[in-house]
Amino acid sequence: MITESDIEHIAELADIGISKDEVPEFTLQFNAILEYFEVLDSVEGEGAPAAGTTNVFREDEPRPSLPQEAVLANAGSTENGFIKAPRVM
Questions:
Q1: Domain total for the chain?
Q2: Which of 19, 24, 27, 86 sits at a 20 to 30 Å CA gap from 64?
Q3: pTM (global) more than 0.90
């Protein structure tokens, strides 16, 4: 069970500013989520049929792509026929 002091500690670790008035509500919400996980843990899945979704494979075949002009027309900035993006570092 999550306590109000746990919520305050989690908020501090996550650097989330929550007010003292919000702590009880978050405590209730966290505990409700954990109760739901307990329900999920109690479900017996052994021997249950798998869901109807399966992997669908197709042959990896080359297909025509957009012309370079069409791609560059949608780019914010281009240079020498390439999309120019801001530096990351």
A1: 1
A2: 86
A3: no
